[in-house]
Amino acid sequence: MQHLDKIYINGEFVTPHGTEVLDLINPVTGEKAADVRLADEVDTQNAIAAAQAAFQTFRYTGKEERIGYLNKMHEILKRRRDELVEVMMDEYGCPLYFSSLLIDGAVQDFKNMAELMKTYDLEPIVGRSKVRLEPVGVVGVIIPWNSSNGFIATKVSAAIAAGCTVVIKPSELSARQTQVMMECFHEAGLPKGVVNFVPGKGTVVGAEITRNPGINKITFTGSTGVGKTIAKGAVDTMKRVTLELGGKAPNIVLDDADFETVIPQALFACYINSGQACVAATRLLVPAHRLNEVNDIARKALAESVKVGLPQDPTTTIGPMVSEGHYHNVQNYIRIGIEEDKAELLAGGLGKPEGREAGNFVKATVFTNVDNRMRIAQEEIFGPVLCIIPYKDVDDAIRIANDSPFGLAAYVNGKDRATIDYIASRIDAGRICINGDFHDDMTPFGGFKQSGYGREFGAYGLDAYLEPKAVIG
Ligand code: NAD
């Protein structure tokens, strides 16, 4: 069993001042896998002080030096890729295919930022003046467990490129993944204090980052509720804030789509990361007159190709939920769906799948003929629960898609490009993914409405770490 009792401040692995110890439970077996000693407010203050001191030098480093660190990180992560995938599967149960995808993305993030910096103009001329794009300062990075090292890579690669220093607060459920990432940064040999890690509780470490005047910007990924708390707290010291929050993505299937292909794909788009994904396509919008056909195809695909199983099994679609508490949250939503009595339970339902009683496994669940006003269609469940919602015509589909507090991602499947473009222009979401294409590295990622504000990846992502200073005359 692993005992994790070091945090990373000012280029050194140190014993935390905090004394609280948290047990980490294996989501597959329900048994204790490790324990972690958590950082507290004092540790957070020490990390912020180190990042502030380092910023005074790091802010003036040139592009070449920063590109060197980004490339070094890329090489180190590439070398330790399999280990990063392994610990991600083991610690929170993310299935192999998806852990691999996320870690490969993390490795690439550093390379992409290094490449972008080669051509990114940090001193553009506007009118007759020069605009200096200067690093925003010390950045607090607060992230969830569902792709911990992926989020660190996206956010910290941009921060380093901009010349910022960082204090990272990963989820308390990601301590083992964090340990590997801390080792990677240490090996990269960045100047002391540029990157600091304080794993601890949100209400302790996260709250200190939010209120401490030494932090200039917070980049947060997590739930909409916590995002609002951080935004309110951050305004007192006028911190810049980027919020990547929850989602309830619609997936519109048009009448001219190939249903035999698209409906099975729609199940996988909902069940990515075992349904624990902000971009999961959890609302499947289908033409009302073809609902029975959709149900039949979905039933068949569930039986033939959706597998709830061990994360390490390459054929597994859905692994366990991250924690017992979260398992119960998902069960509660399935109960609400059944009790609301406006929809039909097509597959899955309450309880654990046969043979998977030990861990936090949830059945692959589908509700059909769902009314979009139901709670299961409005609220983020963050588990393998799909709502099939019938629509009358294209404008009705757009209306339903937009009838949500969220606006992170949306999906459209069909043949007629003009109809697809019409839908893409009318859906309020930060990302519209067409016919199965779901990611393009350098395009902006972020939400409309209560899915947050600000963007990540590529030049849009880098902009968020820079303050423009106009030098006139
Ligand atoms: P969460 O909001 O509970 O926690 C996220 C982080 O915030 C954790 O590190 C937590 O410790 C910290 N935190 C909690 N309370 C805090 C407080 N008062 N002050 C400061 N920090 C605090 O989210 P979670 O359960 O870990 O993750 C799931 C959520 O993340 C879902 O809502 C999901 O949609 C969202 N998410 C969004 C994106 C995106 O890019 N938009 C990506 C992945 C996950």
TrEMBL record:
Enzyme class: oxidoreductase
Organism: Eikenella glucosivorans
Classification via InterPro entries: Ald_DH/histidinol_DH, Ald_DH_C, Ald_DH_CS_CYS, Ald_DH_CS_GLU, Ald_DH_N, Aldehyde_DH_dom
Protein keywords: Oxidoreductase
Enzyme Commission code(s) on record: 1.2.1.3
Protein origin, superkingdom: Bacteria
Domain Aldehyde dehydrogenase, chain residue ranges per copy: 15-471
UniProt protein name: aldehyde dehydrogenase (NAD(+))
Stated family: Belongs to the aldehyde dehydrogenase family.
Active site: 244
Catalytic reactions on record: an aldehyde + NAD(+) + H2O = a carboxylate + NADH + 2 H(+)
